[in-house]
Amino acid sequence: MGVHIDISGLRPDQVAVVPSPLAELGMALHALSEPGHHPGLQAWATGVTARLDPHLADRMCEADFLWRSTFSDLFLPCAGVPGRTTLPGATLAEDLDLLDKLSDEQFVDAALEFTCALPYGLPGAGPLTDAGLRRRSLELAAARGPRQTEFTERLLSDPPGIRGRLRQFLEDCEEAFFAETWSRLRHQLAADTRHKTDLLRHKGPAGALTAVSPAVTVDEAAGRITVDKLGEGRTATGDGGLLLIPTSLGWPHLMVLHRYGWQPVLHYPVGSPELAAPQTVGQLALRMTALSHPVRMRMCRNLARSAYTTSELAQAHGMTAPEISRHLGVLKKAGLLTTRRRGRYVLHQLDVTVVARLGSDFLEGILR
């Protein structure tokens, strides 16, 4: 699992660290729509929602599939501009001008990514030219409600009209709440940009990339970046560049734009409560699998209360010592046990700190 970016031949000057006002607005809309993903932003989201004009709040629901589950690549239009080297704009207006440079096909494909599950990392026709994908888009939009159906119908029949309508909505959001939010956040993003740029200059791409998140690893020999995520995907910088775009509103999301033909982007959170060494998706799966077995669950009831030897557990559970040893091995491999020696006895105990963290580890892992 994970997303892989082939960076063979990538030069340090082809890696850029740049904040994006439009990307941050996308994260703001996501946090307002899914406050449960962002408990640290609860006060901000409550304040914005309380002041929001009812008409603007109503419009926010029309196309919330662009930002509710995650946020659409439309919020990173610089990556889709031909040449694959364009940087985000310094202002929201400049970013929206880049959005206007996307073709209708690019715009519609990105807008309907979460509605009709278009082939993301592969070339192919989109719903503007493929009748089957067009029908699927309308069917799945209908399952979301009449507003989403109306939006999708208009998007497919009049892309320029919807593009203008979306731009006006985003401009209205800037006036209503985002200008104030951006003026507060951009200083933190600028500081992170300077830090990552210094790392890039002095330690090369690997130094800057590993500082983005512990979930990002770089294999310089193979020329590959791997981002530990539940999803899978592949892309390559090729003859283009690589963008690192920080967000102050994004934790726990670490997003990778790997759309076919677009410039790869790592959209990463800064100033987050992320653990110094978060669990990999594989480690998380191993731990949850280890705890899912009914025998091991019953053993954990004992091991959470006190330390036990293998023979004591065998007697308590009416099993043989080799059977208990196999179950202990699974728990130990998953990092859920501590062991210590007392004379000739080995005592096992559940690491309750690790188990208590599983809920937050699981949430961070699936939202990453």
Explain what the structure shows:
- This protein is 52% helix and 13% strand.
- By secondary structure, the chain is an alpha/beta fold.
- A hairpin with a 4-residue loop joins β3 (216-219) and β4 (224-227).
- The chain starts with a strand and ends with a helix.
Task: Offer a concise description of the structure.
The chain is of the alpha/beta class. It contains 15 helices and 10 strands.
Compute the number of strand runs.
10
Q: What composes the largest sheet?
A: 4 strands, mixed
Q: β content, as a range?
A: 5-15%
The Rg value, from CA coordinates, equals: 24 Å
Strand order within the widest beta sheet: 3-4-1-5
Query: Which spans have pLDDT < 50 for at least 5 consecutive residues?
Result: none
**Helical amount:** 40-55%
Q: Give the distance, in angstroms, between the N- and C-terminal Cα atoms.
A: 13 Å
What string, H for helix and E for strand, traces the elements in order? EEHHHHHHHHHEEEEEEHHHHEEHH
Quote the average pLDDT: 89
Tally of separate helices: 15
Question: What are the defining features of this structure?
Answer:
4-stranded mixed sheet, single chain, alpha/beta, 368 residues, 13% strand, 15 helices
